[in-house]
Task: inverse folding
């Protein structure tokens, strides 16, 4: 039996098949859910517009409960970081839907570097269509044989897929009790999955202390993902995704600076 949060998500998009399509899993896999899995909450929120607090009120309250029994309060900055990682994960996982493009066109902007990058992304979302963005996504990340870019840590760090960076990441995730969802066939070192993991850490869904969070970032994202976003920003086939690359590059620069500050 589905809980209220999952039922709302399904209703918001018009059915199980559509929700499965939007989040990139099979209909039978989604049909087996009784509630939205913790690792899928942010993806479902992005795909449906149903807030994480409605999807999993047991996880998303004003405070995040950590295993020790203590209460770890998430700051506004943490939640903003989680939102940024969630956005990047959603855009790197699949081509944007019409609903996501519409919401992107209304992004809040400011005079800060990330606010200016958001303004450019909002303009790019307004100027593109689902078909154009979908073709870009195919050309950039899938292609006929291979896309223009290969968004995996192993490839960026060694020139090959399924190499030592992936093995090291899997070892660290196993220590944290994080396993790849059975319906997800992408290696864990895909940029979208790494952004999703960082989002879940930042918002407290994956409860780790600040030191472990920094280690995950510096070991598995910092060595390559900024370079990837820079390549996306300059990619031949990028138009809408050029703005995505710009947001990603600016955000990762901010993360690098923040983690470098003394505690």
Result:
């Amino acid at each position: 039996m589905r809980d209220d949060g999952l039922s709302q998500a399904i209703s918001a998009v018009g059915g199980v098949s559509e929700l499965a399509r939007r989040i990139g899993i099979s209909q039978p896999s989604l049909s087996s859910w009784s509630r939205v899995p913790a690792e899928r909450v942010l993806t479902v929120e992005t795909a449906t517009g149903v807030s994480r607090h409605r999807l999993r009120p047991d996880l998303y309250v004003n405070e995040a409960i950590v295993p020790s029994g203590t209460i770890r309060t998430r700051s506004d900055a943490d939640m903003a970081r989680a939102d940024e990682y969630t956005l990047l994960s959603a855009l790197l996982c699949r081509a944007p839907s019409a609903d996501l493009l519409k919401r992107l066109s209304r992004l809040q902007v400011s005079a800060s570097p990330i606010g200016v990058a958001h303004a450019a992304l909002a303009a790019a979302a307004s100027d593109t269509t689902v078909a154009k963005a979908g073709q870009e996504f195919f050309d950039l990340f899938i292609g006929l044989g291979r896309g223009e870019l290969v968004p995996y840590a192993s490839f960026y760090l060694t020139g090959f897929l399924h190499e030592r960076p992936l093995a090291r990441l899997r070892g660290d995730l196993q220590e944290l009790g994080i396993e790849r969802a059975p319906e997800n066939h992408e290696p864990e070192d895909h940029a979208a999955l790494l952004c999703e993991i960082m989002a879940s850490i930042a918002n407290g869904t994956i409860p780790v202390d600040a030191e472990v969070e920094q280690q995950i970032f510096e070991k598995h994202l910092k060595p390559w993902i900024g370079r990837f976003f820079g390549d996306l920003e300059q990619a031949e086939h990028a138009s809408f995704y050029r703005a995505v690359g710009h947001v990603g590059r600016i955000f990762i620069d901010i993360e690098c600076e923040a983690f470098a500050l003394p505690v």
Observations:
- The radius of gyration is 18 Å.
